[in-house]
Each structure stands twice: as C-alpha cells, then as structure tokens.
Predict the 3D structure of the following.
Amino acid sequence: MFSLPQLEAFVAVAEELHFGAAAVRLNMTQPPLSRQIQMLEKKLGTQLFGRTSRKVELTAAGATLLPRARQILDMCIKTDLDVRRVSSGEAGAITVGYTAIAGQSALPLMLRHAAESMPGVSFVLRELVSTDQMDGLVKGSVDIGLLRPIVARPGVVSRPLMKDRLVVALPEGSSLLGNMAAPQGAPLPLGSLDRLPLLMYSTKEARYFHDLVLRLFASAGAHANITQYASQVPALLAFVQAGLGVTLVPASAMAFAPAGVEFHEIDGRHGIQELNRVDLELAWNEETANPAVLRLLDLIESP
Amino acid sequence: MFSLPQLEAFVAVAEELHFGAAAVRLNMTQPPLSRQIQMLEKKLGTQLFGRTSRKVELTAAGATLLPRARQILDMCIKTDLDVRRVSSGEAGAITVGYTAIAGQSALPLMLRHAAESMPGVSFVLRELVSTDQMDGLVKGSVDIGLLRPIVARPGVVSRPLMKDRLVVALPEGSSLLGNMAAPQGAPLPLGSLDRLPLLMYSTKEARYFHDLVLRLFASAGAHANITQYASQVPALLAFVQAGLGVTLVPASAMAFAPAGVEFHEIDGRHGIQELNRVDLELAWNEETANPAVLRLLDLIESP
DNA sequence: AAACATTCATACCTTTACTGGATTGTTAAG
DNA sequence: CTTAACAATCCAGTAAAGGTATGAATGTTT
C-alpha cells in the first residue's frame, strides 16, 4: 500500500506540474521527491505522470488518483483534529443515567447548563433506576449518574447534587382527612395520614423511597395502610388524582402534577425534619478517562 | 501526521483488544506493535487505549479514532483499486469528438458497441467540427475523434471508419427537374441538377462537403447555382422540404430525413463513382496514455 | 501462600528506507 | 552548437521499523 507522504508528494507534483517547485513546497529536495513518485507509481503499478525533461502532465490514472488522494489527506487531517478535540474534552459524548424523577428536575437543569458551556459534546440519555446506574458506572456504560444515595460500588464516587424533601399529595377537596383538613399548602403532621389508604413506592424499583416513607411513618407513629404499589411518581399522582388515596412525593415533582391534586408540606416537628431528606446525587467512575466527563465535573464543581 | 501502518495497527488492536493477538494478525511480533501504538498516541497527543497488563480498552479518543481509521484505510484500498482499474482500461473516461453527421450514424453505433464491451468506462461527448477535433486531439482535450479526412496534425493518426456517398435530396414530387424526373430511388445523373437552385454547405464549418460537392458538379460539367448556405445536414434538408432547392447529403442522413424529401443515388458513370466518397475517420493521438482509449482502439480493430 | 501464566513495556541490535548533495542525461531554446 | 532547464541516478549518512530477549505487573492455580 502507498504511504501518506507519497500521496502528499503526488498532490504537490500534480498541482505544480513541476518536480522542483513541488519539492520546494514540500520542504525537500527534488531527487527524493522523484523517487517517492516512482515508488508510488511502482506500488500502483502504473504511470501517474507523463513526464519529459520539459513538461509534466497527469495520466488518466493520475487524474483518477488526484481527487481521491486529496480526500484521503483531508480526512486524515480532520481525523487528527477530531481525536485531539475529543481528548481535550472539547468534543465527545457523555452517557448520562438518571432516575425518572431526576429526568424531570435535575437532568434538564444540568443539560441546559452543560450544553451552553460545552458545545460539541453530545449527551446520550438513559433513564435507569439507581442500582442499574451504579452497575453502568462500574462497567463504563454510564459516564454520569443522577441517582439516589444508595451503596456505592468500588470505584464509583458521588457528591450531593440536589436536596429535596417529600411532601404529601392528596386528592383536591378530599374528605379523606375528615375534620383534620388543612388549607392548601399548610403543613400537615404525618399523624393525620394514619391508616389512610396509602399509595406506595414499589419495594424493588424504588426501594429508596419505599424505605424512606416507612421510616417517616414509623417516626410519626402512624400506621401505613398500603393499598397500591407503583414505581413511578406520575403513576402515583394519577392514583391520587383519581381519589384512591394519599402518597408522598418529592417536592420537585409538584411542578408536573396533574390538576386535582393538592400538596402539603410535612409538619417538621418531633425530628421528622431530619429524616425527611430526599437527596439526589451525582455519581461517576473515579477512573473515567473520558475528557468530556472530566470537564463536566469541573464545570459542576466551580460555579 | 500519523502513518497508515499505524492506523492499521491501531484498528487491529482495537478489534482484538489484545496486543499479542493483534500482532499475529499483522504478521509481526508484539513489541514493535506496542511501539507503533505508542508512536501513534504521541503524535495524536493522547492515550488511545487504557491498558494494564491484564486488559486493553479503548478510551474516548480511541473510540473516536476507530471508525475514522477504518474509513481512511477503506478509502485507501478503494483508491488503489480504482487507480489500477483506470490504468488497465477497465474503468475510466473517454472524450469523443464527433461531427454533427457522425453523431447520427457512426457515434451511436460505436457507443452501443463500446458500452457493451467496456462497462465502467464513461464517455464524454463533444460535438465539434473536424478541425476543432483535430486541435483537441493534439492538446489532449479529445481522446477519440470521429471526423472527416482532413489534413492530420503531427502525432494524430486515423483510420477509415465508415465509407459513405452523397445522394441527391429533392422536394418530393417536385417539378424542379422538369421532364427529367426519375422515380423515387432511381439513380440520377448530376447533370440533371445543372443550374437548379442548390442548397450548399458553408465554406467554413463544412468545407469538406463544400469542396466535395463542387468537385462532383465540376466533374459532371454541371453548373452549381448556389442559392443558400447552411452547415448542418438537417438544416439543408429542411430547406429541401420547403421546396427551396436541391442538395447532396450523405446517404446515412437519409435515415433521419423529414417527410416530403425524396432521395436519389447519383449516377456513377463518367468517373463520378470514384469522386463520390464521403469518408468518416476515427482519429486519435498516437501517444495517448489513456488505457481506456487503447482498449477501445483494440476493440474497434479486432472484431 | 507461593509458584506459574499471561500480557504489555523496555532494551538492544539488525535491517531497511528515506534524505540530501553531487552528478548525469536529455530536451528545448538561443 | 552551446546553454539552460529539469528529471533521473548514484552515493553516503541518518532515521525508522522490525526482531529477540527480558522485565514488570497482575491474575490464576496448586
């Protein structure tokens, strides 16, 4: 196979149609240039130039080679630049894993922020529950995770990204609370949910929320009367909207609640305040070599 | 800039993810392969593989390089093949110059013949008068000429391609000939055209025909009463159709004559037969380096 | 736990290939 | 016939590539 310097030499000669001039352009002397062309011709098995001592002209084969040689050289230069850009983090791709809820709050914020500061970097989005994100971070199939503070696997590090809290979601104007009804938005002690039909996070896909709700109920001395399981916040809210019961959702989920649902802060007394923390973390593999990821992490740290 | 062997080495390692196996595939030993990759990384200024003594994996930069490297190598192989094909005459382009009349007779014949036997070769068609074709053949802007036997320029050789003769074209059922009228297709002595309005080839663009017609008239002792000049056969036939006069056209032009025109062979007695020869020649530059042209010439010689 | 196997990196040597300078050969112009 | 121009050839000197032997790191097996 021919070599890239041979193609460069060929293009120079084809453009100058003069070995001496082409040699100057290539910062070399004429004899080795002649030899390079001869080598190229030998490798291709054909004359590329018709040349006498007075003039040089392209043959049909040479005319065929010229545009292709230019194209190959251009592609090499472009490839060189692309690889450098990716290695500097200027371009590249970041695979972001995120939970369903983060997809509605932290993810858009982060993407808006990142897309502005890192044009050229594309994001691959994968909605995954926290444990699957953790697996992905270990395997390298996920670069950045937006997940709940679950047990980290070795090599994966994280930092808090958003602090959130659970709020109570009730059917609007419901009589479930009886005479304990509170005006929209007023704090509600968890005790008032005692034995009410509770729409619960599934044990498996949303264990973090499941456990947290149970802890909160226990701490308030209330009985959790679970009547329905679901793993996604929108599903739970739809049940609430239908009047099937009450549930607890992250405050950030209020923004996309359907009509017919009212929210109340949880009364923070008796130590509930400390328990009622829904954290979202940003996690990544400590040993990630993806420069775009490193840049993104810097970006999130600094401002 | 990186080199093609380096790209080949990179692709092999990226596909095998194992230096030893990649080295086998490249028919070399492992240490120089490692060095080639190191060189490539140095030239690109970045790591392409994350490697320990136990495993090899692509970095983001490496993943970016892989498809581009494959593309460059593929293009090199394809270019090599294309150049060889052109140099063997298997593919390529032939610029054919042809006169207006040849464009209606010899050219389609030749193209049909050639297109069958030389798939992959494309033809660039240029309608040119014979002298311009001759210039083009010298300059190299025309590969093959279909032209009248005019004086050849140095380096241009030719061979007869088609023998033709002139025939008389008359307005159908015309009274121009008076009582000398002949049945359709019957030979007509040129003397019967004496002093009739003659539609003539222009001196400049169709000198060959112009001179030939004059010679024929002179030889028959007839007077050429020129009433109109035109350079293209169809234009002359249109005049004949309109009843403006008579003219002489190549027999091959009868095929595309308009209705309302009748043709007669020229009576060949008194030496007219020898004069009435309209030859079409195939001409090319003796030193043409275009392999497709050489193949075409062979093709025309042999069958 | 220690010996072993695997695998990539390094050191050193040999061969190959490329470069630059001087020279030659050929062709067109004065 | 001489000269100028230009590509090809010859001849070292040097840079690059490949091979063998060896080392270092990390799992794996006994």
